[in-house]
Specification:
Layout (H helix, E strand, L loop, with lengths): L1 H27 L1 H5 L2 H17 L13 H15 L11 H5 L6 H17 L4 H12 L2 H4 L3
The structure holds protoporphyrin IX containing FE.
Length: 145
């Protein structure tokens, strides 16, 4: 009987440990999966670019940019931001945006366009907020000093 109880206890402890470790793994990249993994990010960035090209205040910033290159860079960067399995190999946010003289209003507008794009592709408000919190910390690297 004692052996049986011990056995049961061991199984219980093992299950708890497995439960917590798989929970941790799931939690770390949960946002990535919640927004549809790589395909979801591609859809979002497509919608974002469609919003940018229709915006008179923001489009001029991209006058000399390659849309294809921007899309790929933004996809990889966002994928990393949401703890996905991609690696962004581009320049730092400071290096890219320095010299563009981005003001507060235009930064906010780009964030608005991203929110609209997230709505376009039906990303939940909870995931939207998580993404926005992660991007908000980049603000000082992007707005002109
Ligand atoms: C949190 C906000 C932002 C993030 C995370 C972000 C991120 C990025 C990334 C990842 C790239 C692509 C880098 C590459 O692979 O070449 C990029 C490029 C670019 N970003 Fe941003 N950006 C932000 C805000 C802005 C704002 C507010 C503007 C302008 C109003 C802007 C204008 C540009 C332009 C014009 C490029 C293309 C540069 C080129 O052609 O080399 N970005 N950004």
């Amino acid at each position: 009987m004692i052996k049986y109880v011990y056995g049961l206890l061991i199984v219980l402890v093992l299950q708890l440990c497995l439960g917590c470790s798989s929970k941790n793994v799931a939690q770390s990249d949960q946002l990535y999966y919640d927004i549809g993994a790589h395909q979801g990010i591609e859809k979002l960035v497509d919608a974002f670019v469609q919003r940018i090209v229709k915006d008179k205040a923001i489009l001029p910033y991209f006058a000399k940019s390659s849309v294809k290159h921007f899309k790929q860079g933004f996809i990889n960067h966002l994928c990393g931001v949401v703890n996905g399995p991609c690696k962004y190999n581009g320049d730092s946010m400071i290096d890219i945006h320095t010299g563009m003289n981005i003001n507060e209003a235009d930064f906010n507008r780009v964030v608005e366009l991203l929110i609209e794009a997230m709505e376009d592709v039906d990303i939940s408000y909870q995931s939207q907020n998580k993404i926005l919190v992660k991007l908000a910390v980049l603000r000082p690297e992007i707005i002109k000093i």
